[in-house]
Design goal:
alpha/beta; binds adenosine-5'-diphosphate; binds magnesium ion
Amino acid sequence: MRTKTIQDLVHLDGRRVLVRVDFNVPLRDGQVADDHRVRAAVPTLISLLSRGARVLCASHLGRPGGTEVPALSLSPVADVLSSHLKRRVTFISPCVGPRAESRAAALPAGEVALLENVRFEPGETENDGVLAARLAALADAYVNDAFGTAHRAHASTEGVARLVRPAVAGALMEREVRCLTRVLEPDHRPYVAVLGGAKIAGKIDLIEHLIPRVDHLLIGGAMAYTFLVARGVPVGRSLVDRARVRLAGQLLTRAEEEGVRIDLPVDHVTRSSLTAGSCGITSGAEIAPDELGGDIGPRTVERFAGILSGAGTILWNGPLGAFEHEGFESGTRAVAEAIRSGPGYSVVGGGDSAAALRHLGVEEGFDHISTGGGASLAFLSGQTLPGLAALEQV
Ligand code: ADP
Ligand code: MG
């Protein structure tokens, strides 16, 4: 079984195709501040347009809460899309209703329109059936290329997909599923997962799902301190999830029982606060009572890098330090270097992980950097994504 994709679509000439894209871009002074999500949608749109489809793009932007918020209008995105597609983009507002239907019907073959923010409609996040039907009334075919919202059952991601046939995945969605599946069913071993980030709470399902699959778990970031405390190591004022220390201990035991090797940091970069003071390096895993750990230390980096350079498959989720703060970025940078210069098949998942790579300027060389934060975590945790499940299978 696989999800149908735009390659499975035939007879597109003159047909109206509703494409759920992810144009949830940052705006500054009414302008698009970062257009990488718009650029990412171009291959799917060009593929449909070149086959004569009439393309209607739908997206959310921010959280207007079911009402029209002018500052969250998608209209600035229409110009950016137009420049990337090198063709006119009609802007349709509101996104549904008789006017939207007549304008969609009037769109010439091979032309594209952008609908206003779907979250201006009250029923979008509630997956309201009436809104889904009004979206469905615009289209003869549906394509979902918004992986980042696929873990939410909304009217424009799930409801409408059940009402329009064909309903298929776009090129971005297809790539996400293919690459993330490769790290759930790895061809090449050893399989090493690197986990970091701030909180263990949102990643328990992920860790539980990975334990039977991976050969080696490397744990860094703030998450490591909860595990260190579970092993009885003092970590000073570092971020610890006290309520989950026992659970962390149980996960360590389970991993050991399954034969998974686990590496926690053996040293740290510390400071008296995340933001100020001078950095120190601990001599071991222990952190002094008045210090906090902000990054993995140099001996840990060396260990992690050595393990990663021999890995066949690598999944990385979560920065290894508080990389936004000066002095705490080297662990994340060094691990990125080790992964991208090594031979392993590498996938990065998680919103802040992708942001960290962008921030450090080390995005090249990975096999896949997921565009979905919550969606990639949900997928890698083995959950069914409603936006994906609603598409047709072959
Ligand atoms: P992702 O979105 O990739 O899943 P998370 O949201 O779990 O990642 O965590 C990202 C955050 O973790 C970053 O803001 C980073 O500053 C923080 N972080 C990483 N290591 C530490 C640390 N040692 N102390 C405090 N915060 C940390
Ligand atoms: Mg995050």
